[in-house]
Amino acid sequence: MQEFFRMIINTVKNISIWSVLDILVVSYIFFKGYMLIKETRAEQLLKGIILILVLIPISYLLRLDMLYFILSKTITIGVLTIIIIFQPEIRRALEHIGRTAFEDIHIIQDDETLDRVVTEIVTAVDNMSYLKTGALIAIEQSTGLGEITSNGTELDAKVSSGLLENIFVENTPLHDGATIIRNDRISAAGCVLPLTSNNNINKKLGTRHRAAIGLSENSDAIIIVVSEETGTVSLAVNGRLTRNYDRDKLKNILLKIMINRRSKRVKTIGERVKAWIAKLKIKK
């Protein structure tokens, strides 16, 4: 026992500031990784892996040779299997890292333009909700939606409530897909979105709601859904769907999300260079 405590004391004495930094970085990576897979099917897999890792040394110490052989071989081939099965979760994690590491280019920077665009969207949604016109609108943020817009019809039109309402008029060519808004422009309409693979969502939700959740799981886009059955307005953000928005509540939450994301954006290299040049000029 004394030898054990002596070893711990020696280890603590030899810890440097870089060792502490290393531990903190690794801890942060594990924490963010867990938050990304929390409440997903990957969380259950992680629990299974931890159980296997615990059983391997136990089976070895108890000389359960057959169990030890099976578990060790399972771990050996399990890494490739995990990559194949959980490719969507891995992609989502890498996209999340990319969003947080580099600046977005699709969030409106001007307050007046942002307020106008949000007002037009909210007006259209409110009118369609009253008329029970089904709608699916995705507001692009830092994750580019080029793959999504490419399967729809390109518009590149100024955002207006009248145009948005006209797009979703029943039996028109573009009403059954999603409309993508990039900056202050309607980029495309009639786009097909990926459906969520989450089996725990409400079974009463239709294809539009499942598509909204699916896109929000794979990007940081803000997706608005209007139910054609009830007129209920829903919002999908970061894989979560919230419902029953009225005009004022929807406008407030959209502005809050977009302004908050804009304030946290990371400056591009170009902006940093410009700022550095500006400082040099001031010093001169």
From TrEMBL:
| Enzyme class name | transferase
Keywords, alphabetical: ATP-binding, Cell membrane, Membrane, Nucleotide-binding, Nucleotidyltransferase, Transferase, Transmembrane, Transmembrane helix
Q: Any stretches that span the bilayer, and where are they? A: 15-37, 44-62, 68-86
Annotated InterPro entries: C-di-AMP_synthase, CdaA, CdaA_N, DisA, DNA_integrity_DisA_N_sf, DNA_integrity_scan_DisA_N
Q: Which domain of life is it from?
A: Bacteria
Q: Which GO terms describe its molecular function?
A: adenylate cyclase activity; ATP binding; diadenylate cyclase activity
Q: Where is the DAC domain?
A: 87-247
The reaction(s) catalysed by this protein are: 2 ATP = 3',3'-c-di-AMP + 2 diphosphate
Q: Which GO terms describe its biological process?
A: cAMP biosynthetic process
Might you give the EC number(s) for this enzyme?
A: 2.7.7.85
Task: Family membership, please give it.
Answer: Belongs to the adenylate cyclase family. DacA/CdaA subfamily.
- Role: Catalyzes the condensation of 2 ATP molecules into cyclic di-AMP (c-di-AMP), a second messenger used to regulate differing processes in different bacteria.
Q: How does it assemble?
A: Probably a homodimer.
Q: What is this protein called?
A: Diadenylate cyclase
Q: Which organism is it from?
A: Clostridium polyendosporum
Give the classification, highest ranks.
Bacteria, Bacillati, Bacillota, Clostridia, Eubacteriales
